[in-house]
Amino acid sequence: MRAQSLRKHVVEEITATISKFGCAVTADIWTETYRKTSFLSATIHYVNEQSELHSRVLFAAPFDPSTSKTGENIRRHLLQNLRVFGIDATDMGKKIIFVTDRGANMISALREYTRLNCTAHILNVTLSSAFGPAIIEKSPEIASLLTDVKKLVTYFKHSGQQGKLKKSLKQSIETRWNSNFDMLNSVLEQYEDIASVLTESNNYDKIGRISISTLKLLVSFLKPFKEATDDLETDNTAPSASLVLPWSVRLIEHCTSATKDPLLSEIATVCVTRLKELLSADSTSSHSVHMLYKIATFLTPNLRGLRMLDERGRQNVIQGVKEMIEDLKFDHAHDEDVEPTPAKRPTVLHKFSDWEEEEESCGSKSLDVQIQEYRTMKLELSSQQNILQWWNSNSSQFPALSNLARFVLCIPATSAPSERAFSLCGRILEERRSVLKPSSVSDILFLHGNLK
Question: Cα(12)–Cα(409) distance, rounded to whole angstroms?
Answer without folding.
Answer: 22
